[in-house]
Structure to design on (164 residues):
């Protein structure tokens, strides 16, 4: 788990792993969601997390000046991502999925808001405390991405509240 004491390269690797863990969870949640709207929401979130991974991968590759592209591709394809960007272990969220069937969109939405809110809080903390100033910039950008996710989910919550 990223602490803010890492240099920029290690920060990118840690952020990538957290984004991958979150993407993996959202993909699994989309596959298990009963309700079509919940399924769509988790699928959309999974796509956004993939875009975050692409962004971080681009930064990593640019920093490495194409010296370690094969190494990064191997890392990307073989690495396990046990923790989400919310700091919640993927296995804990999967256990919650096993106990909970998404009978309504609101239950799925509340879970997604929890994850995205914690992700925002983590990136906010890291953007202020990271030792490496370049890592701070990356964490600030990731924090802004999480803000967009939370805003999307809040709008969806309002929409669902109007239709119930």
């Amino acid at each position: 788990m990223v602490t803010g004491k890492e240099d920029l390269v290690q920060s990118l690797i840690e952020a990538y792993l957290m984004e991958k863990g979150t993407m993996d969870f959202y993909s699994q949640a989309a596959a298990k969601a009963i309700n079509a709207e919940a399924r769509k929401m988790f699928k959309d979130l999974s796509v956004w997390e993939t875009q975050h991974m692409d962004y971080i991968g681009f930064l990593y590759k640019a920093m490495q000046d194409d010296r370690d592209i094969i190494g990064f591709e191997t890392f990307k394809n073989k690495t396990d991502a046990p923790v989400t960007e919310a700091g919640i272990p993927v296995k804990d969220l999967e256990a919650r999925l096993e106990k909970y069937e998404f009978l309504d969109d609101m239950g799925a939405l509340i879970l997604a808001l929890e994850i995205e809110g914690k992700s925002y809080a983590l990136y906010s903390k890291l953007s202020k405390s990271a030792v490496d100033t370049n890592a701070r910039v990356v964490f600030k950008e990731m924090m802004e991405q999480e803000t967009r996710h939370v805003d999307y989910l809040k709008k969806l919550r309002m929409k669902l509240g109007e239709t119930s």
User: Anything to note?
Assistant: The CA atoms of residues 109 and 153 lie 7 Å apart. The two ends are 39 Å apart (CA to CA). The mean pLDDT is 81. The chain has six helices and no strands.
